[in-house]
What we know:
Number of strands: 15
EC number: 2.4.1.221
Order of helices and strands: HHEHEHEHEEEEEEEHEHHHEHHEHEHEH
Number of helices: 14
Radius of gyration: 23 Å
Signal peptide: 1-24
InterPro entries: GDP-Fuc_O-FucTrfase, OFUT2-like
Helix content: 25-40%
Bound molecules: guanosine-5'-diphosphate, 2-acetamido-2-deoxy-beta-D-glucopyranose, magnesium ion
GO molecular function, one term: peptide-O-fucosyltransferase activity
Keywords: Carbohydrate metabolism, Disulfide bond, Endoplasmic reticulum, Fucose metabolism, Glycoprotein, Glycosyltransferase, Golgi apparatus, Signal, Transferase
Distance between the termini: 41 Å
Mean pLDDT: 89
Amino acid sequence: MAARFFLGWSFFILFLSTVPQTCCDEVQFQAGHSATSMSLGTSAAEQRYLLYDVNPPEGFNLRRDVYIRMASLLKTLQKTSNWVLVLPPWGRLYHWQSPDIHQIRIPWAEFFDLKSLDQNIHVIEYEDFLAESGGPFIEQVYVLQGYAEGWKEGTWEEKVDQRPCIDQLMYSEDRNGYYRGWFWGYEETRGHNVTCLSVQGSASVIAAMLLKNTTARSIMLDRAENLLHDHYGGKDYWDTRRSMVFAKHLRVIGDEFRAKVLQSNDNADKTIFHEDWKKVKGKPGPALGGPYLAAHLRRKDFIWGHREDVPSLRKAADEIHKLLKKLKLNKVFVATDADQEDLQELRKQIPEMVRFEPTWEELELFKDGGVAIIDQWICAHARYFIGTSVSTFSFRIHEEREILGFEPKTTYNRFCGDKEKNCEQPTHWKIVY
Ligand SMILES: Nc1nc2c(ncn2[C@@H]2O[C@H](COP(=O)(O)OP(=O)(O)O)[C@@H](O)[C@H]2O)c(=O)[nH]1
Ligand SMILES: *[C@@H]1O[C@H](CO)[C@@H](O)[C@H](O)[C@H]1NC(C)=O
Ligand SMILES: *[C@@H]1O[C@H](CO)[C@@H](O)[C@H](O)[C@H]1NC(C)=O
Ligand SMILES: [Mg+2]
């Protein structure tokens, strides 16, 4: 536990003060539990906890999308009773490969501004849940899955049913009858009951069931990505998306880099940031952006499949040079997950390339997730952005630029594959306020 707080930097102290001690043995939990079960069904104000997790191979930016779905489920639940969303600690992500860095049990406050999240729906960190709910126990785990028989042709209906588990269960019963599992790296956490649910439909289809079929106070939805958006791109979607403000310490680093290396600042760029996201009501157009082009070049697993819509480095470099000329810019900021070999090639092809390269200390401090956010923040403030086809990393940059008020044609652009015939450009999603 102490390992996470080895750093003395002042802004980490902030986190410390909000993170209570993990505690409590079973006895305490049982005591707390029986006290509350007496009032079950009688007290509408009783706090219930919604927890969730996502399929392990999914990356950071798809997980951000699943958060939006869970937030709309929480809003639906809150119409009937008192619920809070417990933020699933970050960690063990496939793309976070920097060696020797402790990258599990990371609280959301290291990446996002909790106060901003909390202005949209009531959220708490997992460590707060442990302290508040009386210990490392989750009463009911539902593992979400599809239907074994698939979709019946021609009929789409939203439904949820208790069904036998289709895949091998990632939880196992210990000798005391508790379920053990990954639980975000919290080994002491146990589930009282694990059940598989087949679901088809948007996040809120499960709401009625959570309200009526179970009295569990803490409920975890595992494989939550099986629930779809209630209304992708609607007001509720955008409210939640706008509330996902990056943590201040990461924005500050991004802004310093913009100022020092790219001669970019909010006043000149007309990209004014408000601490209160609810006060921002941008219209597309007024944002100008810093005097640089930004490109997101997704490599690794995106090129291993030889996808038709992902360019070679040569082709990407050509496109970047064309754009620099057209836009009369001489700097290009490149965000990429390219390996060392690809990076060398990129430097050769694009000598004017600028990148955010953290020192080891910065990497240890911000972690792979924080560095990716800094890359996204810098891309979001460029005069013009071009991303990689169907990368959620690029999609989140589109949204950030939309919030900042950029003209759509400076945002919804992507590289084309070398032999791609029909290079369709990304969809423009307008904010609904
Ligand atoms: N720092 C940094 N990391 C990146 C970049 N592109 C990809 N990554 C890493 O690779 C992951 C990609 O997975 P994901 O977020 O799911 O986006 P997607 O797979 O592109 O849809 C990111 O979360 C980052 O960890 C980049 O430009 N800069
Ligand atoms: C929830 O309860 C209703 C009514 O008892 C039942 O018909 C339904 O199958 C239950 N749903 C699940 C997912 O258990
Ligand atoms: C576990 O939960 C399911 C769904 O609520 C329920 O049908 C089942 O009886 C529970 N099992 C135990 C052992 O309590
Ligand atoms: Mg991914």
